[in-house]
Structures are given as C-alpha cells and as structure tokens.
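Bumping my old thread because nobody answered last time. Still need a sequence for this structure:
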C-alpha cells in the first residue's frame, strides 16, 4: 500500500476520522450537497486495483446490468461508479430477482397488439426461448410481514443514517443491559436480509463505521490488545458539546470486551466483518468501497492480528473461553471449531478482496499457507465418524516419533459413553475442540454448518454432517431449530466446567439450548449441498412458533419446547435469521455471496514439501477425501 505498513496506515486513518466523529465515511456526496460546491475530496483515496480474477465465484447478475461474455467483455472486478439505485446492479440479468425484491417498481405487462402477435409468430424459435416467462411473485405471509416490521423497528440511526440493528427491541422489558447495542455478529443476518431485499445503505454504513472504531484506543487494566481488534458492539450516545448543555452531538461508544462478562475480547467480530464485506461487495458490485485505503488497511490489520506468530504448533487459532457466540464459560477454550471455521472463511474471503501490490504480497502468501495448513488440520484431526471413533478406541498412547498414529496422545477412555450409541453408521461431524490429550466430542452446530459453507470440510464430510443432522433430527432440531451444542453438560461436569453458571444450566442457553438464529446458517449449508428440503422442514417448524412466542432469543429443554427462562423477546437475530432463511430458499443462487467452493490448489501447498526431514505427510489422505 504505497510502501506503508498497516500500522502506519491505521494511524493515519485514525487521525483523519477522530476529529470529526459525526462525519460519515461515505461523505463524498454528502459533503458536496452540504457545501453546494463541486465534487468533494474523498476522506480516503481509492487504491489503484489490478484487474486480477477473484478466486471465488461472482453471481452473473451482480456484474452490471448487461450480461457480457467473450474477450471484449469488461473485467469482473469493476472499478467504475456504483449505481445509486441498487436495482441497477441486478436488473436485466435475472428477471425474477427484480420481480421478487422490487415488485412495486416492476412494469406491468400489457397484452401485445395484433401486429405484434404476427411479428412474434414469424420470429425464430430461438428468440422465443431467449425470453423467459415472468415468474409469479409469492405473497409474503403474515409472519414474514411482522418480521419485517420488527426488523425495521430495531434499526439504529447515527447522524440521521442507519448503521445497524439493536440486539433486541423488547418494549415489555425495562432492564436493557447490553441488548440496546449493535453487535457485529448479531447484525450479520440483519445485513443479509437487507442486502437481499436491495436495501444496501445500512450495510455500507455499518461496515464503514465499525471499521472506524477498529482504530480507537482499547485498554483493560492498562493493557491494550492488538490494533486489528474489532469491537464486539457499539452504542449511539448523545453527549453535550459544552458544559452549558446548549448543544449535543452523537458519538459511537464501542465495547471491545472491556465491559463484557469476563472481559473477553471478541475474536469472531473481525472475522464476521470480513465475511459480511465480501457478501456486500458481491451483491452490490460496490468495489470502489473495497478498494479504499481504509478498508484494505482494516482487512490487513485483522489478518495480521490473526496470523501473528506465537508459541502454538497448530494452524488453528488459540482463544480463551467466551470469545465467540458462546460468550460465557463453556469449556471451549483452546481451538474451538466455531472460531476455526469462521477464521478459514475470513481467510478465503480476504484472498479474494486483498489488493495485490508490494505491500500485500507477503500477507497474501501467509494467507495461502495458513489456508492450506488449516484445511488439512481440520479435515484430518477434527473429523469423527463410526470408523474414526473405533480407531480412537484402539489408540496406543505415549507414542514418540514422527510416524505416530495418535499424534495428540488421546486416551481412548475420553470417548464419552453417550457417543458410543449416538454416532450413526453413516455420517459424521467435526468435533468441538482439539488439544494435546483432549478431544471435545460435543457437536457444535455453528462450527459444523460454517465449515460446510466455507468448504473447510471435504464434500464427503459435508454430506456426512447433513446426514447426521437428518438422522439425529429429534436431538438436534426437535421442536425448534437448532441446538447450539449437543449434548448438554450436567451434574459435576456442569459445576466444574461452567463454574455452576445459573444461566447455562443443562439444556438452557449455551448449554444445549435451541437457537432459532442458527436457522439461516443451516439453510445456507443445505442449499450449498443440494439439500434444501431439510432447510424447508426446519423453517416450517420455526414459523409455526416464533411469532406466537414473540421471537425469543433461545429455547430451553432437551427438545426445545420451552421458551428460554432468561430469553429476551423480539430478539433481532432471531427475526433476521428467519427472514434470511426464507429469502435464501426462495432465491438459492444468492447463497454464493457467502459460500466458498472447494479449492484443490490449497491441498498442494503443504509446508512439509519444503523439508527433506519430513518426507512422510498425510496430506495425500486429505486430498483423497475431497472426492
């Protein structure tokens, strides 16, 4: 980036935005309208972008209004002006998309005149085939209409512009706690719902304002974490301009974990931000945003923080308890699957979005190396099925050699009794955690579903996970999708691992509770694997109850029959997750804004090939699973 380091760029960005907290970062047009003068100078200059083909797929209707192919076609990675009307990015290439998302503005078709009929009769047959008949617009159900009303009610404005949605908008609850804040992970399903409806402004504002917060000072007990850390949430506060309280201004008040329960930094926030940035750019074609210096710097800072050297011998991220959606003590410290799946997805997204220049080549090389090592590690060591568990059951321990089978010194006695009868003959899943002499055999839904979406698993493993969910439907879905983890910890295990947490009692909250917001990620995984009928079954189940139950945050009991004992009503990501699931099922091609295809090139980049001492490597086994 013009020879500057990410740290230097971050300092420059912070200096540019802090003196004017109220100014929106997308201020070029706003500043021009206020001043009445000509074009305003952008706050951050746009980077020159070499037209390199992205690694992932682009939706055909996201490039421009006219679909062009061949040698004279414009490059996919466009750098021209972005249409102010989001319809311009999708119209003309996918007629039903316009009709579904913008039915009020779609022209009403009139019967052709008699001469037109005669002309049409003499046209070639291929011309008739080129014009697809209009698909009927499905009328929204009353539950969907209510969900949209509630989602819009949760929108937060900053200086007159929408910037996110609060975690919950419960008019009957007087104790807000932190549910009146905008959480990065919570906003993702809301953002997707707005994007798929063509309302992109709120997502753009959210991305830029949270990026601005990345450079703010964050300190807990005189210690500051890495500069690339994204906040867990932020709140809009109104503060006086002077001591006389004659004027007020709105400011963003972020929380980087210093006010959270347990004071844990949100590791997943930056990963979700990168994933959402890619989805926004793919569905809008707004690559001018992506090429901005501050956005490129933000991506680099997040990656630099995640890829920093440490003492760990594994390619997985080492984190503490409570650093992701499970934000309380639940025994997931170490290398939890949820973080690894999001980490892998963020790396894949970043590889598509990073501008290639002298300043980023080293980082891109590090991203490719980590992707290769991480995919192998998860596929090889986290995967369990009937065959693998039987292999673990017969493990020899205390092996000391490069050819050891039991590389993590797992004791067979760790296999829990519930798993012996629970694992089906067909199918399998990725375990929740792996450390020396420790395997967490619990099934964690988010990590497994996102591993499917990002192609962290092999296609065969992805099919096995969905087969297991279908086989164990009564355990993982039952009356309300979807168990956050299975099974729950009980008795002494609950007391020791959670510290007798009264909120995470057995089959409640994070300890085996059912979370409707996981529905959209389940839908995404099902669409990617060609199993939409499973998602429709789960969506129909949720639709029967969510509205009557006032859209709760989570459900309790082993079968998910009771509303959670401390569950908030009108939880925004419950509402948005339902809407996103419905829209994905109606327009399954939109799933590609979030998913990644299998990349066999990653399996060629084994670091062991560089060392003559490590002649034997099991990467070939991982490649064989990709089929």
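Sorry it took so long. Here it is:
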């Amino acid at each position: 980036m013009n020879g500057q380091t990410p740290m230097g760029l971050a300092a420059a960005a912070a200096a540019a935005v802090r003196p004017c907290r109220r100014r929106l970062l997308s201020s070029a047009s706003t500043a021009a309208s206020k001043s009445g003068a000509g074009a305003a100078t952008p706050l951050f200059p746009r980077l020159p972008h070499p037209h390199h083909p992205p690694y992932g797929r682009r939706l055909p209707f996201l490039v421009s209004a006219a679909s062009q192919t061949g040698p004279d076609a414009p490059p996919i990675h466009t750098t021209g002006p972005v249409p102010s009307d989001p319809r311009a990015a999708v119209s003309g290439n996918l007629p039903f998309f316009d009709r579904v998302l913008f039915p009020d503005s779609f022209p009403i078709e009139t019967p052709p005149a008699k001469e037109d009929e005669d002309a049409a009769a003499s046209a070639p047959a291929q011309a008739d085939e080129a014009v697809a008949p209009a698909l009927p617009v499905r009328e929204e159900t009353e539950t969907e209409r209510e969900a949209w009303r509630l989602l819009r009610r949760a929108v937060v404005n900053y200086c007159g512009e929408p910037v996110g949605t609060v975690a919950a908008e419960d008019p009957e609850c007087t104790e807000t706690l932190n549910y009146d804040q905008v959480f990065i992970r919570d906003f993702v399903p809301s953002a997707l719902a707005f994007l798929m409806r063509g309302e992109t402004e709120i997502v753009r504002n959210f991305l830029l304002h949270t990026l601005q917060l990345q450079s703010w000072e964050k300190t807990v007990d005189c210690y500051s974490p890495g500069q690339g850390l994204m906040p867990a949430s932020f709140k809009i506060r109104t503060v006086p301009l002077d001591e006389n309280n004659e004027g007020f201004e709105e400011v963003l008040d972020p929380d980087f974990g210093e006010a959270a329960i347990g004071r844990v930094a949100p590791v997943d926030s930056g990963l979700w931000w990168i994933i959402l940035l890619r989805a926004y750019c793919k569905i809008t074609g707004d690559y001018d945003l992506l090429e901005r210096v501050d956005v490129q710097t933000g991506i680099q800072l997040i990656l630099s923080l995640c890829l920093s050297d440490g003492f760990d011998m594994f390619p997985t991220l080492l984190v503490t308890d409570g650093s992701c959606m499970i934000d309380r003590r639940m025994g997931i410290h170490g290398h939890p699957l949820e973080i690894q799946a999001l980490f892998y997805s963020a790396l894949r997204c970043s590889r598509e979005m990073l501008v290639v220049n002298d300043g980023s080549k080293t980082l891109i090389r590090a991203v490719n190396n980590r992707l290769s090592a991480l995919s192998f590690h998860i596929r090889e060591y986290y995967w369990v099925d009937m065959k693998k568990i039987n292999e673990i059951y017969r493990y020899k321990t205390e092996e000391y050699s490069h050819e050891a089978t039991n590389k993590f010194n797992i004791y067979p006695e760790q296999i829990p009794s519930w798993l012996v009868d629970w694992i089906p003959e067909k199918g399998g899943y990725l375990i929740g955690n792996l450390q020396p002499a420790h395997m967490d055999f619990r099934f964690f839904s988010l990590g497994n579903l996102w591993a499917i979406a990002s192609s962290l698993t092999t296609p065969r493993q992805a099919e096995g996970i969905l087969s297991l969910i279908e086989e164990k439907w009564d355990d993982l879905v039952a009356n309300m999708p979807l168990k956050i983890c299975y099974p729950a910890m009980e008795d002494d295990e609950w007391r020791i691992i959670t510290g007798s947490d009264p909120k995470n009692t057995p089959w409640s909250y994070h300890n085996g509770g059912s979370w409707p917001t996981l529905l959209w990620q389940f839908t995404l995984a099902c669409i990617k694997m060609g199993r939409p009928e499973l998602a429709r079954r789960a969506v129909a189940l949720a639709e029967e109850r969510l509205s009557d139950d006032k859209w709760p945050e989570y459900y309790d009991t082993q079968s998910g029959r009771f509303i959670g004992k401390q569950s908030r009503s009108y939880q925004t990501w419950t509402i948005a997750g339902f809407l996103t699931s419905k829209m994905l099922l109606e327009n399954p091609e939109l799933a590609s804004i979030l998913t990644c295809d299998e990349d066999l090139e990653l399996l060629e980049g084994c670091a062991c090939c560089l060392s003559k001492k490590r002649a034997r490597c099991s990467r070939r086994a991982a490649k064989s699973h990709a089929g």
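Residues 361-381 form the longest helix (21 residues). Let me know if any region looks off to you.
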